Known about the structure:
This protein is mainly alpha-helical. It is built from three helices and six strands.
Amino acid sequence: MARFGRTTMTDSDLLQIIASLRRENEDLRNSKEQLMARQLHGVVSGGAKKSPRDTDREKEHFLQTKRRRETVNLTQELQKMAAKCEALIAQESRIEELERQLAEVYTCDICRSSYDDETHVPRILKKCGHTLCLYCICQLHAQSQYQSVRCPFCTAITHVFIVDLLPKNYALSRRA
């Protein structure tokens, strides 16, 4: 895997690019060898001989044309890769946003701790249905003069003698 910024390219994408460049390199070598063989033999189409100067011009023209084609192909390939990278970056930022939102759902709105199965067990206040962690409910219960918990969101009072008997919110409890 290769990383470009925050975007990762797969091995298969890189292998395709490398294979394409190798093919083009091989084509260039073959063309160069053919031109050199023609130059050595002085053979041109129709069997007429050309001067070394004309052969050099043809060779240079051929190589320039080949380089232009390669440049155009590589530019197009890079544009496609850049578009893919931009799409992946956008997708990655969307995933990060969704993960952040999901993390907020699984945290207590009072203490901002993640819900767990020990001290921060998500419990439902019976009177209003709001969910707080067990730790925060115990703190609110200890502050109350009466055996009750006042909801910090809507101020509804839930009477409870034992905080552990409040129903657990299984939808928000972390699954192992």
